[in-house]
Amino acid sequence: MTTQAYTPPKVWKWDSPNGGQFASTNRPTAGATFEQTLPKGNAPLQLYSLGTPNGIKVVMLLEELLAKGITGAEYDLYKINISQGDQFGSDFVAINPNSKIPALKDYSVEPAQPVFESGAILLYLADKFNVFIPTTLAGRTTCLSWLFWQMGSAPYVGGGFGHFYAYAPEKLEYPINRFTMETKRQLDLLDKHLADKSFICGDEYSIADIAIWPWYGRLVLGALYEAAEFLNVQQYTHLLRWAKQIEARPAVQKALHKEYQAI
Ligand SMILES: N[C@@H](CCC(=O)N[C@@H](CS)C(=O)NCC(=O)O)C(=O)O
């Protein structure tokens, strides 16, 4: 494929497939496209997910809750194969109309509560069990600021930088430069923020760390897009210290292992 200047038509049309890693699943419409019955186990929480950064977050929190002996956090984990289009099945769409993993259904309440968006799932579980979120309004507000920051910022890393650096059918300088600039700005922000504190919100590990680590922690640890050298991550010493500290948590190791084992 060669790079050519593109003159947009008056009305955009879906040119399927348009190449690239996700060409088979991306589409300009929402909603279920086929009937599907999801598996369901006996645990109070049923999680439908995959081992992506957004998926890993939820399993990280559930494993931390179980490590604290919170039995209400027991869960069954089922793999949603997004490259085969499982996210467009009727049962999955009933939990998450946005057709993206992760999606959770809490059967410990009546009626069972569906939750989608990884940040909303983390907040729901932290509030439900009253842990991994500060209890003061000031602390909670700081924690939620960083949680929402992650949710708004990581798409520039994943959908922008990661897509054009690792997945797009050809390497294009303009989008790679644009999203590398923004990704490095975000890494520098986290590095500066972590210079004088153990965790994102201070001394306590919280859902803000859990949301941020699978994206930015794993990026500087070289686990995403094989981009550690390109992004010169060694310069982010505080962020690297934090990333390694979290990686060493037993619950995190369990989550990484479990997520990929999902059936
Ligand atoms: N903001 C959402 C993003 C979720 C998301 O983008 N999930 C991706 C995998 S990481 C997905 O399911 N993609 C399938 C698709 O786009 O069809 C969240 O954090 O839950």
Describe the 3D structure.
This protein is of the alpha+beta class. It has a domain at 137-250: Glutathione S-transferase Yfyf (Class Pi), Chain A, domain 2 (Up-down Bundle), CATH 1.20.1050.10. Helices cover 46% and strands 7% of the residues. The protein is built from 8 helices and 4 strands; from the N terminus they run E-H-E-H-E-E-H-H-H-H-H-H. The chain has helices at residues 53-67, 90-95, 118-129, 137-167, 173-193, 207-220, 237-247, 250-261, and strands at 45-49, 75-79, 103-106, 113-116. A 4-stranded mixed β-sheet has the order 2-1-3-4. Helix 1 links the parallel strand 1 (45-49) and strand 2. Helix 1 crosses helix 8 (250-261) and helix 5 (173-193) packs across helix 7 (237-247). The longest helix is centred in the middle third of the chain and has 31 residues, at 137-167. It is globular, with a radius of gyration of 19 Å. Bound molecules: glutathione. Glutathione binds at residues 25, 52, 54, 82, 87, 99-102, 117-118. Glutathione (GSH) is lined by residues 25, 52, 54, 82, 87, 99-102, 117-118. Residues 46-133 form the GST N-terminal domain. Residues 136-263 form the GST C-terminal domain. It holds the Pfam family GST_C_2.
Observed structural traits:
Glutathione S-transferase Yfyf (Class Pi), Chain A, domain 2, 46% helix, 263 residues, alpha+beta
